[in-house]
Structures are given as C-alpha cells and as structure tokens.
Amino acid sequence: MMANSINSTDTIIMAALSTLSPPHHSHLSDSISALLRRHLGRLVSLLSSPALFAVTLRHLQSLSLHHKCLLIARHLLSSLTILRHALLSPSEAAQPPAARMKLRDLDAALLLLLLCELHHHDRRHLLDAPPSRWRALLAAYASSAVLRLSSFGGCSGGEALVQFAESVRRCWDLVRVMGGGEGRAAAAAAAAVVALPSVSAGGGEECAICREEMREGRDVCELPCNHLFHWICILRWLEKTHTCPCCRRRLPTDDLRREIERLLEEIAVIGGGCEHGRIQ
C-alpha cells in the first residue's frame, strides 16, 4: 500500500520542510530542537536513575506486543501532529496541536526505541545479559552512539530537522513491522464526522454513493476534498472507512496506524510527493 515505507518518510519530511520560508523554517527548527532536547532529557533521567529505569522497564515488560506497537504509534503520532501543525498556513493553524504524551508513556516509548536500537546494533548485548544489567548497557551505548549532544539534543537547527526525520522513519518502520494491519479499513473519527459542514446542493449533481441526484436546495455533506454526498449516504460510508468515495482522501480516524498514514500523506502533498493525498 505504501511503497518504500511511505516513499521514505525522511525524504517526504525534508521535501515538505523545503517549502517553508526562511523565518518559518528557523522557527520550526527551534521547535524541533526543543522537542529533541526534551526527549534527550527524559532519556538521561531514565539512564541515570536506577529507580525510574526499573519502574519504566517493568511497565514496558508488562505490555503485549500490540500495546508496545500502540505506544510507538502514539509517540510517532504526537511528533507528526506537531510537524503538521507547524507546516500549516497561519489561517489553517487556528487549532493547537494535540496534547503531548503522558510522561510515563513517553519514557516507555523512548526506552523501547533505545532497546530496539541497541538490539539492532548488536543483539548479543541484550540476549547475553540479564535485565538487571540493561541500564548500564544502554547507558554505555547511548553515551557513545545515540545521545551525543552534538548530534541529538544540542545540534543545529538543520541537523535537528534531519535527526527528527530519521527518528520518524525509524518509528514508522517499527510500527509497520510490529503492527501489521495492511488492508484493514478504519472508520472516520466521530469528531471529524461531526465537524463536516452542510451545504446546499446546486441541483444536477449526483451522489457518488447512491447514484441519485442531490436535489437543488437540499442540505448535503461536503468533505474536505469538496466532494458532496447525501448526508445519510456519507454517514453510513464513514462508519466503515475514513476515505472519500471519490478521491480516497483520508479523514481523521481513531485508528493510530491509519492516522499516521493520513498525516504522512498530507505532509507529502505539501512537499509535492504525491497527488491529492495519495502516496504514489
């Protein structure tokens, strides 16, 4: 469905960032740098506090694979929401981005990502050691490879954006591998459906769902892509899927994986990476 991991998520993000004006780009760089410094600070706290590390590790170990996938997905969605909001024009950005993750969940997500990174680097480190030694192993690995201030929290604006794009790609790869779910349909989010506007039909137009005429003067539903439908038809449709029947543009959904795909597609449109909301 999504070729080459959303056509390479880091490439899509960098293409979208290239459309920003210099002042806007500088402001976003500062915001992303602050986000990376926050993540760095949480990881430093985790690795320097035996008690906090033990609590977070126990919480992580209590989660099923499915819930670990959801944890990474929420972390990724939080980051993408911040980025998507920053890419909006001032007139579109009236609503603030979604709230940050709870601190407990953020710590667990960052620890899981670091564990995955160390496992990928050398799986023997974790397989050959008991969990009681994991904090020391992660601290040693992080100090030499992952948490260098010069390349993570303390990097320049441009480097921060590159680091952010690479982090998004790693998270998305993990969600795809851990979560599966290709081909599943997802209903549109109730909040998105309630917010859809009513407009007056002009007459002569046909509802693409029932193939009957939308009578002039009658209220019909308009999707964000400007396609019109009978209200009863589109409500039934959106109970099953969150895409427009005509162009397949996505509406927001409560399904984390599909919402990530939707945001990535919107970012790709900004950077010219796909046509009308669909990755090619």
Automatic annotation (TrEMBL):
Name the Gene Ontology molecular function terms of this record: ubiquitin protein ligase activity; zinc ion binding
Q: What EC designation does it have?
A: 2.3.2.27
Q: Which UniProt keywords apply?
A: Acyltransferase, Metal-binding, Transferase, Zinc, Zinc-finger
Give all residue intervals belonging to the RING-type domain: 207-248
Gene3D superfamilies associated with the record: Zinc/RING finger domain, C3HC4 (zinc finger)
Q: What is this protein called?
A: RING-type E3 ubiquitin transferase
Q: Which organism is it from?
A: Salvia divinorum
Lineage runs:
Eukaryota, Viridiplantae, Streptophyta, Embryophyta, Tracheophyta
